[in-house]
Design brief:
By secondary structure, the chain is α+β, with helices and mostly antiparallel strands. The protein has a domain at about 55-145: GIY-YIG endonuclease. It has 5 helices and 5 strands; from the N terminus they run E-H-E-E-E-H-H-H-E-H. It has helices at about 15-30, 80-90, 100-105, 115, 125-145; strands at about 10-15, 30-35, 60-65, 70-75, 120-125. It has a 3-stranded antiparallel β-sheet. The protein has a two-stranded parallel sheet with strand order 1-2.
Length: about 150
């Protein structure tokens, strides 16, 4: 009478070979990737550096609270990195919706700065690519260290 556990599936928009790498990360985490082909193909992204001021670009980022806390948040934004960082760092919110803002409100002695706390993980203009990249980085992080992620 051994019951089989029902397999867990996750839908991933197929964009390129990177999507297969993301799928392998999910597979290791116990999820079966179900690739979804986008009928209206998105433009491929370039892996070489974009010659634009980093704070004015958009994509996937990681915010790390300074030591000894070291809590991290991984997210993506369609706005500029600097604009999204300012939203996370707004300590004056009475009811913050951002996990980073909640963390900072609960820990008023913790301070983050754009130059020291934000790391750009991937630049892209495509929301689909950004979502895949965000999922990849979160699962990659969770498989390494679980107690430091604010997500």
């Amino acid at each position: 009478d051994t019951q089989k556990t029902k397999p867990k599936y996750i839908t991933i928009n197929y964009t390129d070979k990177l999507t297969e790498k993301v799928g392998r990360v999910f597979k290791k985490a116990g999820y079966n990737p179900a690739y979804k082909v986008i009928t209206n193909p998105i433009p491929t992204y370039k892996t070489e550096p974009i010659k634009q001021c980093p704070e004015n670009t958009r994509g996937v980022y990681k915010i790390t609270c300074p030591p000894p806390c070291n809590k991290q948040y991984i997210g993506y934004t369609n706005r500029s990195f600097i604009q999204r960082f300012k939203e996370h760092n707004a300590k004056h919110h009475t009811n913050p919706s951002s996990m980073v803002a909640k963390h900072l409100k609960e820990n008023p002695d913790h301070n983050i700065t754009f130059s020291d706390s934000l790391k750009i993980l991937h630049k892209t203009k495509s929301k689909s690519v950004a979502k895949v990249q965000e999922s990849y980085h979160i699962f990659k992080h969770v498989n390494i260290v679980t107690d430091t992620l604010l997500n």
